[in-house]
Amino acid sequence: MKKLLIGLTALPLAGCISFGAKPPEALLSITAAEQVPVGQAQSSAGARTITIQVPSVPQALANNRVPVQTGATDIAYVKEAQWVEPPARQFARLLSDTVAARTGRVVMSGAQSLADPGARLAGELRGFGVDATTREAVVTYDAALVRDEGGALEKRRFEARVPVTAIEPAPVGAALNQAANRVAGEVADWVGR
Question: What region holds the ABC-type transport auxiliary lipoprotein component domain (predicted)?
Fold first, then answer.
């Protein structure tokens, strides 16, 4: 009986104990505006291939938070905003979908590309956040492309800026999605020529 009473008195305290931060109401993600239609077969026998690597990122992007450049050397993060997964992986997937849809190339993963990598696209996602001084979502990608085995390396910087109505999770997420799709479209056009 004593054990039951002790257990019942401790029960209200169980709601007061918390391990870790309170999760955000929603997690942000980006989605490709252009994708290969469901059910459409792709074959490397009749199409060129490309391997798209997950881009490297600076430390400010090496987490699931959304950075805000508040000054020349100051970075903060959007309050209560988190990505569902790190931006580099989401951006690589968006690039893969967009390149496949726009160019007709077969996009392969690292494991699939061991036999014949085809063209190779790598790079650095230098910016994927908000510029507070201009109130814009900014996506900056430095791409490095090798079109053929043993071919020359081509480099190019891509950037898109989209106005942000408020530095809050929903408008920032929508603006970054739009900017990322713009950059991915420009990269696909560059790869496809």
Answer: 37-188
